[in-house]
Amino acid sequence: AAGVIQSPRHLIKEKRETATLKCYPIPRHDTVYWYQQGPGQDPQFLISFYEKMQSDKGSIPDRFSAQQFSDYHSELNMSSLELGDSALYFCASSRAPALHEQYFGPGTRLTVT
Amino acid sequence: AQTVTQSQPEMSVQEAETVTLSCTYDTSESDYYLFWYKQPPSRQMILVIRQEAYKQQNATENRFSVNFQKAAKSFSLKISDSQLGDAAMYFCAYITGTYKYIFGTGTRLKVLA
Question: Which helix (H) or strand (E) holds B3?
Answer without folding.
Answer: strand B3-5
